[in-house]
């Protein structure tokens, strides 16, 4: 059962992370986040860093590589874009440019990465798998809300022909 769950998690993560790339933009369109070029470059760098880490996680879980898993979780946890060295003006621009819900989702995402690191330190396979699944869920929710132009697969269900 653990093997099947691990394969499932790996397949889901590959499907989701294969398309994760930095957000792009220039002007705010709907819920698309638009930042000045300097801040956009920081956001894109952070997204690339997170993407690299997220791709390491399922392999580390499947191999019981707790050290890599803990380091990766901690690396993602500490990669807050707002914690980077920004000028006062950049901090103000970022604060006013990012919607509150985005900031909340970002905070929860990084917190979840910390929980993943703690699960790895405890060598708790099930808890690590759970936090990884929630981490990926956070990626998808944010992209569906704020990066539909970058990830068109997150458009409305009726546009995708989705039915229940």
Question: How does this structure look, described?
Answer:
This protein has 164 residues and is mainly α. It has a single domain, classed as Four Helix Bundle (Hemerythrin (Met), subunit A), CATH 1.20.120. 69% of the residues lie in helices and 0% in strands. It is built from seven helices and no strands. Helix 1 packs parallel to helix 6, helix 2 runs antiparallel to helix 3 (66-77) and helix 5 packs antiparallel against helix 6 (125-146). The two termini are 28 Å apart.
List the helices and strands and how they pair.
Elements: H1 2-17, H2 37-63, H3 66-77, H4 88-97, H5 100-121, H6 125-146, H7 157-160
Helix pairs in contact: 1-2, 1-6, 2-3, 2-6, 3-5, 5-6
Radius of gyration: 17 Å
Mean pLDDT across all amino acids: 79
The proportion of residues in beta strands is under 5%
- Uncertain runs are 4-30
Query: What's the story with the biggest beta sheet?
Result: none
Output the structural class. Answer: mainly alpha
Number of domains as seen in the coordinates:
1
């Amino acid at each position: 059962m653990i093997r099947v769950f691990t394969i499932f998690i790996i397949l889901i993560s590959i499907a989701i992370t294969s398309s994760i790339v930095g957000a792009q933009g220039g002007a705010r369109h709907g819920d698309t986040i638009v930042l000045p070029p300097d801040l956009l470059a920081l956001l894109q760098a952070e997204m690339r860093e997170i993407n690299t880490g997220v791709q390491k996680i399922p392999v580390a879980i499947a191999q019981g590589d707790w050290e890599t898993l803990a380091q990766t979780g901690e690396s993602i946890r500490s990669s807050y874009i707002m914690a980077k060295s920004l000028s006062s003006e950049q901090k103000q621009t970022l604060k006013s440019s990012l919607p509150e819900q985005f900031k909340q989702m970002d905070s929860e995402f990084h917190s979840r990465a910390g929980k993943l690191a703690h699960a790895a330190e405890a060598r708790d396979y099930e808890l690590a798998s759970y936090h990884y699944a929630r981490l990926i869920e956070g990626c998808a929710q944010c992209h569906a809300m704020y990066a539909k132009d970058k990830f068109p697969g997150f458009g409305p269900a009726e546009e995708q022909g989705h039915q229940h």
